[in-house]
Amino acid sequence: MSQENCPVLQTHLVSLHSNKYYGKTFPTAKEQKAFEKNLYKKTHRANAEVIMLDGLTVVYRSNVDLFFYVMGSCHENELILGSVLNCLYDAVNQILRKNVEKRTLLENLDVILLAVDEICDGGIVLEADSTSVVQRVAVRSDDIPLGEQTVAQVLQSAKEQLKWSLLK
């Protein structure tokens, strides 16, 4: 596949605290902040999943106190952008163990940004399977044999299991 046929992203935004821009659509931080403010204003109460804004196709998804955005040029296929968004959201969901909220995302931002890098490199989509992304970036403490875990890891694992058993 030639590079001109590859889907190209303009940016990923997760919430408005961690974002990653590709290309030169918004070269300055001031332009980026203005765009983000306008984007949030247009999407925070909307029920749609796709909008056109400033010549970009934007697909987005919200969860509790976070918004996940994936953007491409107005010529990009919305289904591909949606697939990338679903991969990003599902990977974040798996990494954060279904506790997708702002606090836990910020605590694990290094792993989340690594997942973004696995999904997309320089705007070129590399992966759309969240399971593959998570396998490459996450070291889960419950995969470590019990004898090799620290006391804190064992307590954290037990706490997670108890929490999920109560939520079911």
UniProtKB/TrEMBL annotation:
The UniProt keyword set, sorted, is: Cytoplasm, Cytoplasmic vesicle, ER-Golgi transport, Golgi apparatus, Membrane, Protein transport, Transport
From the Swiss-Prot or TrEMBL record, state where the protein is found: Cytoplasm; Golgi apparatus membrane; Cytoplasmic vesicle, COPI-coated vesicle membrane
Q: Which domain of life is it from?
A: Eukaryota
Q: Which GO terms describe its cellular component?
A: COPI vesicle coat; Golgi membrane
The UniProt similarity line reads: Belongs to the adaptor complexes small subunit family.
**Stated role:** The coatomer is a cytosolic protein complex that binds to dilysine motifs and reversibly associates with Golgi non-clathrin-coated vesicles, which further mediate biosynthetic protein transport from the ER, via the Golgi up to the trans Golgi network. Coatomer complex is required for budding from Golgi membranes, and is essential for the retrograde Golgi-to-ER transport of dilysine-tagged proteins. The zeta subunit may be involved in regulating the coat assembly and, hence, the rate of biosynthetic protein transport due to its association-dissociation properties with the coatomer complex.
The record ties this protein, via PANTHER family, to:
COATOMER SUBUNIT ZETA (PTHR11043:SF0), ZETA-COAT PROTEIN (PTHR11043)
How it assembles, according to the record, is:
Oligomeric complex that consists of at least the alpha, beta, beta', gamma, delta, epsilon and zeta subunits.
The protein's name in its UniProt record: Coatomer subunit zeta
To which species is this protein native? Answer: Araneus ventricosus
